[in-house]
Amino acid sequence: MKFCNMSMRLVNSLMEEKVYWLAWHIILAGQASKFWEIKERFGSLRDAWQAPDKEFGFLSSMQGGKASDFLARRSATDLHEVANCLNNKTHKIIFFTDAAYPEQLRHIFDPPPVLYLRGREDSLHQVSVALVGARKASPYGISVAENLAHDLAAAGVNVVSGMARGIDTAAHRGALAAGGSTVAVLGCGVDVVYPRENGKIMGAIIQSGAVVSEFPPGSQPEAWHFPVRNRVISGLSRVVVVVEAAEKSGALITAHVALEQGRDVMAVPGNITSKTSKGPNALIQQGAAPVLNAADILQELGMGTLFPPSGEKEDGSLKLTAEEKLLHELLDFEPVPLEVLVQKSGLTAGQAMSALTFLEMKGMVRQMPGRLYARAR
Question: Is residue 95 part of a domain?
């Protein structure tokens, strides 16, 4: 078989591990639960790759065909070509084991083993809110999504959506208009523009934030990809806001997945006679907090009033997470490198960066060039 002597030619064991990791991910793209099941069963992804077909009887039904189809793809995969993918300059490949992997996404039920990214890697580590909704949105919904995204981005919050027509596109457009950061989670490869008319906005997103996908480059949009990618939209976000959605829609799937992931879900109330308002109105009936403006979302995030009237200082009543309290206590008015804060706090780099971003937006921390941080008050 083509993989027999591959390990002899790889640069080192880490590179070898990444090749097998990426190979499994490519043939199981969008089926993270199967990837993790295989890894748990065999321990080593290299051993799993070399295992005979009969040892995969534990796999149940799979997207895109039977288990035998996936085993055939394994046999046809050239690991030399997979290794070459690691040197691609058009996009970044982020493995689950990398420090660059977003911390919030790491802890969902079935996190993507690999993410492909075009744009700014740091956008995956910012405080984020997902704005989702109907493709066939009303003018009201489009306006609300755009205005909410604009105000959130202006407040320093990263806006996450799926770059679909309607609410998603409006959300990205609003964040871009504010000069803020926005992330598009795609149901296709990061080199595929979908829908076609979003080529220009996709380019702008890559400049200010990122487009990201668990589907390999070249993957075309398929119907089953979109429910799968919705868990990534909510997984990257602290709050998911449904702007408009029919009673049975992808946006509501995202909301339900968000609740399973422990995320806060909010909804924009709408006309009770409108089909696209039935979804968010139902969520509000079920206990989701209503959104009338961006301040409601900021309050849900615990940010309160970012800019006190008359320039007055906050009275210390801002809600802080345990991580934020820990880092604020470690900081002084003299700048401290991020690496030192990570070491002293015991937090991961992703957790520390997220908490520091939050503290900065609350006016409690100042960031200086070179990833230096100091207490602001």
Answer: no
* Distant-in-sequence, close-in-space partners of 228: CB < 8 Å, separation ≥ 6: 30, 63, 187, 214
From residue 82, alpha-carbon distances to 1, 28, 44, 78, 322 in Å are: 15, 14, 18, 7, 41
Q: Within its chain, how far is the Cα of 315 from the centroid?
A: 34
- For residues 288 and 149, state if they share a domain: yes
Q: Which amino acid is at 8?
A: M
The two tokens of residue 284 are 């509000």
pTM: 0.78
Q: Reduced to 3 states, what is the DSSP secondary structure of residue 267?
A: strand
Domain span at residue 314?
309-375
Residues in the chain: 377
Q: Do 116 and 255 belong together in one domain?
A: yes
Which residue, chain included where needed, has tokens 């639960």? 33
Total domains, the chain: 3
HSE, side-chain direction, 13 A CA sphere, residue 266? 24
Separation of CA 304 from chain center: 24
* Interval 112-153: pLDDT, tens: 999 999 999 999 999 999 999 999 999 899 999 999 999 999
